[in-house]
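Renewal narrative, Specific Aim 1. Our central claim is that a sequence can be written position by position from structural information alone. The example that follows is taken directly from our test logs and has not been curated for this report. It begins with the structure tokens describing the chain, in the order in which they were read.
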């Protein structure tokens, strides 16, 4: 789904152009000192530039897929060229083996397939390098492009590269507003997905039907695997079973009935997660929907308590 802003498109386009230009310039500066006939840039780096600068958060764009994908594919391509020849069958074998190897090593990177093909059908200037092709130009090109992607994506606070680096931007932190109570699940519509993607302002390499299916399957799995609501007791701590910035631990301070006895309010204190040490209040029904586990402190962590007895 592509709903990114013009600003994001320009950043991606300029980044890709600068990345290829700098990679080529460095290679041209390095390679003539070794051998002027060496190929200084391989075509598959153009595909890598698309991933690193246009889809920097994608799993196929990360450093290990980039480096591992190109290097293992280059090794396989050179081996096929040396021992099977440079015909169509050798090229097909190199492409297939490189895909299998990237899967096995968890470094799937589509341009790696092109690197394997280049090693087989790139012509005498490539095949004459033998396994040296893996180092120059493949490793040099890939490392240069990786460093440039890290530098280029760093100034834009909504971009993270590598993706596992901590995000420097959180909407709820920027607004300063307290975290809202979780709402009941609602069916996703096209407008909801479109609004979420506009807010992320980054190219997401997944279709809208796939997003809806992932959400539906995850919701169904949660419905089947979630344990019964734990008994809500004063003094007990509970977790919402979430992860990341949505994870919370709350301790029940009091259960207070309304004057007419029609409803019970839960007063709680947040022990961990968003709004730590802050107190809050909600209905008993809302708290039951939120609480997934009763938990207890275990040295430096929290662990679920397996309690199945009924509430008092």
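The sequence written for that structure reads:
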């Amino acid at each position: 789904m592509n709903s990114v802003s013009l600003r994001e498109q320009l950043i991606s386009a300029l980044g890709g152009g600068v990345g290829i230009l700098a990679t080529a310039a460095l290679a041209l500066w390095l390679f003539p000192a070794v051998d002027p006939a060496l190929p200084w840039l391989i075509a598959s780096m153009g595909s890598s530039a698309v991933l690193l600068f246009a889809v920097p958060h994608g799993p196929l764009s990360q450093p290990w897929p980039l480096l591992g994908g190109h290097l293992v594919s280059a090794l396989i391509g050179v081996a096929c060229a040396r021992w099977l020849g440079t015909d169509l069958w050798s090229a097909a074998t190199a492409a297939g083996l490189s895909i299998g190897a990237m899967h096995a090593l968890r470094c799937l990177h589509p341009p790696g397939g092109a690197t394997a093909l280049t090693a087989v059908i790139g012509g005498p200037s490539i095949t004459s390098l033998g396994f040296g092709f893996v180092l120059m130009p493949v490793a040099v090109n890939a490392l240069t492009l990786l460093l440039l992607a890290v530098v280029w994506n760093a100034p834009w606070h909504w971009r993270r590269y590598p993706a596992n680096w901590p995000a420097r931007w959180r909407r709820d932190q920027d607004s300063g507003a307290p975290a809202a109570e979780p709402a009941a699940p609602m069916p996703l519509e096209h407008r909801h997905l479109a609004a979420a993607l506009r807010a992320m302002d980054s190219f997401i390499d997944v279709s809208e039907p796939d997003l809806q299916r992932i959400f539906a399957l995850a919701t169904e799995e949660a419905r089947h695997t979630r344990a019964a609501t734990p008994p809500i007791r004063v003094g007990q701590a509970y977790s919402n079973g979430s992860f990341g910035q949505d994870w919370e631990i709350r301790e029940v301070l009091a259960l207070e009935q309304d004057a007419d006895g029609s409803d019970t309010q839960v007063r709680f204190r947040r022990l961990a997660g968003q709004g730590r040490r802050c107190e809050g209040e909600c209905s008993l029904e809302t708290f039951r929907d939120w609480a997934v586990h009763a938990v207890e402190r275990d040295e430096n962590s929290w662990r679920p308590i397996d309690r199945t007895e009924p509430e008092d």
